[in-house]
Design goal:
alpha+beta; Dna Ligase, domain 1
Length: 161
């Protein structure tokens, strides 16, 4: 019991009113990264679109982000992208088209069953047939429309319109 109180005393400090307050250093215990690379990338793309920029540079490169960018390019939302290896995780150079109103990840990554395609379109897209939802399936990343056509389920990853 004494060990536990020593631990809590080391991560907590008394504030001016005598209440326990968690130190900012104790919030990030361990070497875990709590960043979502895909969410950060989509946020950078959306902010650059709103600022009227023609391109955005983003790091690091990941296979999930590459798959989502390919789907966005096929859907006509970005012109081009390339992954540049720099020895520190890589950099994306994304050429914007000015066609993105909103893009974001779906958190939590909801499961998609065969018959629920319309439900998720209504929830994340502003109108039917307007925008795309990216789904991770056993057959790889694809749009919700492709998963509906193949009659398979998966997990919702992101949306863009």
């Amino acid at each position: 019991m004494a060990v536990m109180s020593e631990f809590t005393d080391s991560i907590c400090a008394d504030n001016a009113l005598g209440r326990k307050q968690i130190n900012s250093d104790s919030k990030n215990m361990g070497d875990k990264m709590l960043n979502d690379v895909l969410a950060n990338m989509l946020s950078a793309i959306k902010n650059s679109e709103r600022a009227g920029k023609e391109e955005v540079m983003f790091r690091p490169v990941s296979t999930l982000s590459t798959g989502v960018l390919k789907i966005m390019k096929d859907g006509g939302y970005i012109q081009e992208f390339e992954a540049i290896e720099d020895g520190r995780g890589g950099i994306y150079r994304i050429i914007l088209d000015g066609k993105i109103n909103d893009c974001n990840v779906v958190k939590p990554r909801f499961p998609l069953r065969k018959g629920d395609h319309v439900k998720w379109e209504r929830r994340f897209l502003p109108a039917e047939g307007f925008g795309i939802i990216v789904v991770s399936t056993s057959q790889g990343l694809m749009t919700l429309a492709q998963a509906k056509k193949k009659e398979i389920g998966g997990r919702l990853i992101s949306f863009v319109y």
